[in-house]
Design brief:
With 54 residues, the chain is mainly alpha-helical. 61% of the residues lie in helices and 0% in strands. It has helices spanning 2-9, 20-38, 41-46.
Length: 54
């Protein structure tokens, strides 16, 4: 993180433009996978509203 901060302060480097779609393609699957493994079944079940019989 410090290296990224230092590089952002250096003038003369070309600006890198990254599409938001690319960020989602790279980071979102790994974040969802990690969240799925760490979430308990009871947390998962409580995230949905309870169904009332008609």
């Amino acid at each position: 993180m410090l290296a990224g901060l230092a590089l952002s302060l250096v003038s003369g480097l070309p600006r890198i433009v990254i599409s938001p779609d690319l960020i989602f393609l790279i980071f979102l699957p790994s974040l969802l996978y990690q969240a799925a493994w760490t979430m308990s079944y009871h947390q998962y079940q409580s995230s949905f509203p309870s169904r009332q019989p008609d």
